[in-house]
Amino acid sequence: MTSDIRRALVVRGGWDGHQPVTISDSFVPFLKDRGFTVETSEDLAVYEDAERLAAADLIVQCWTMGTITREQSENLAVAVRSGTGLAGWHGGIVDSFHDHGYHLLTGGKFVMHPPGFHDHTVRLLPERADHPVIEGLHDFTVHTEQYWVLTDPHIDVLATTTFAADELRDRPAVMPAVWTRTWGAGRVFVSTIGHKPDDFDVPEVRTLTERGLLWASR
């Protein structure tokens, strides 16, 4: 017998400043409405259970500034390579761990953000306008942290932000802000937006994040 019910595993914790429980909880009803059973874990030891990871159709990670073991990192990568989806936002996915294998999996790593929150525009790439994560959406403005990231050339960038020239940099820098990638049979969705709960009150942020969760899922 087979089931149409999909399984989502939400792994959350680390630095409390990103409110991992509050923000990840805001997506649980959406996932349940889309037919997922949702399990949460606030312990990275869940990544030691290879069978549990393989059984998940989607892993939503919301964990900032933690320490992952080689076994945990390798198990996560194997699960995604075999078809389990991985998705997350902001520091919960790009500032999670200092682990090379993990960064290869997600396709990007947080480096810095300018002090505080400021208005900046998120520009959607016109050539990717038909991607299901951003289809029908338009450029929008957010008032939050703007992430400077280092990224893998194999990611599929869907949206960018621009850092203006300043006293250190003689020209503007266009930075990936939302991207997807494949890893073997699995899919990965990353958005750098989402430091605080009200970031998701911006309709485009909520929509593209929800769509990203669905896109990444098996």
TrEMBL record:
Signal peptide residues are none
Q: Where is the ThuA-like domain positioned along the sequence?
A: 7-216
Query: What Gene3D superfamilies would the database entry show?
Result: 3.40.50.880
The organism's superkingdom is given as Bacteria
Pfam families membership: ThuA
Q: What name does UniProt use for this protein?
A: ThuA domain-containing protein
Organism of origin is Streptomyces milbemycinicus
Specify the taxonomic lineage. Answer: Bacteria, Bacillati, Actinomycetota, Actinomycetes, Kitasatosporales
